[in-house]
Amino acid sequence: MNPTLALTCGDPVGIGPEIAVKCLANLEILSTCRLVVVGDAEQLRQTASSLRLSLPQSLQVWDSRSTLEGAGPFLVDLGASFEPIAPGIPSAASGQSAMAAIKKAVSLAWERKVDGIVTGPISKKALHLAGAGATGHTEILARLTDSPQVGMMFVTPAFKVVVLSHHVSLRNALDLITRDRLAGLIRFAASEHRRLFREEPRMGVAGLNPHAGEDSLFGDEEEKEIAPAIERCREEGLDVWGPYPPDTIYLRATRKEFNLVVALYHDQATIPVKASAFGKSAGLTLGLPFLRTTVDHGTAFDIAGRGTADPSSLKAAIDLAVHLTANRSSGSSGSLRLGPSDGSLEPSFEESEPLPPGQQE
């Protein structure tokens, strides 16, 4: 049977509902999985009408207390949780709506009613206005599942990349580059790569400075923190190399010298991903007790409501989830907490922290 995937529409005033409808109308996608779309049914119908697209006749509004029957697709109707707002204007209400969809998708995955979740783009501003107390999907999902260690991987047709820090300032990201954190990430990424892709990782680590420091001529982080972390992991038997100049490491990855790049901060990972594979790549959250993939772009408020949004990345995220479902490990456990927390969470990769539930080797 095809995998069952919960699909959240993201922020309702962004392009999420539009790209969700375009995927719902794509018979190729529907032939590979059973989609369970979580959102406002009336908004999706209006969006389909404005796009002159027909929602599948087999679409069923699903009461999540019942069992899924048939090939689907299905719609979990959250109802209009906010007053109508013009497209492209984020608000506390739109943030609350996006958060409600995330919580519902997480609960469906936790109850094993779906095999994984695929998320549409959300607005960090709207979440902040809604009091969500988190900076992005990864942090929210970590809180909702009490996952002690999470990370983000980006998957493109040519390479995969994990990143040491996420949504922090560049100045703060530099302080997070320590040998202990980097060694922790390398171990964690290696374990998750084996679990999800059933393949041994061969990892290349990016340097921080131009020419990877050029023997400390342009910075000494490579010699003080990065190289020692790599050497420590190599002594443990991991296939990891570097540090390599950040301006050439992705070229080497496309030539198959590595199957996983380790980047040191957010933009060092996302710029090459978006420059080389925008619309063809997807995000993958590591360390959760269920599978989660996501688009490689944001809410695109500037084009919301125009009907011009490209659903390619959402399709790529669905395709990746379908591909990985067969390799997904089972038996994960943990405690579910459905509710936003205060403060922010920066994923930690300290050596002393345990692997997430179900990840112990």
Write up what this structure looks like.
With 361 residues, the chain is α/β, with parallel strands linked by helices. The two termini are 29 Å apart. It has 12 helices and 12 strands. It is 36% helix and 14% strand. Strand 6 (151-155) and strand 7 (160-163) form a beta hairpin. Helix 8 crosses helix 9 (221-235). It has 2 domains: 1-150 and 286-353, 3-Layer(aba) Sandwich (Isopropylmalate Dehydrogenase); 157-279, Isopropylmalate Dehydrogenase (3-Layer(aba) Sandwich). The protein has a 12-stranded mixed sheet with strand order 3-4-2-1-5-12-11-6-7-10-8-9, with helices on both faces.
Could you name the ranges where pLDDT drops below 50 across 5 or more consecutive residues? 329-361
Backbone structural class: alpha/beta
In total, the number of strands is 12
Could you tell me how far the N terminus lies from the C terminus, measured between alpha carbons in angstroms? 29 Å
Q: Total domains, how many?
A: 2
The SSE order reads EHHEHEEHEHHEEHHEHEHEHEEH
**Count, helices:** 12
Query: Into which percentage range does the β-strand content fall?
Result: 5-15%
Average of per-residue pLDDT values: 86
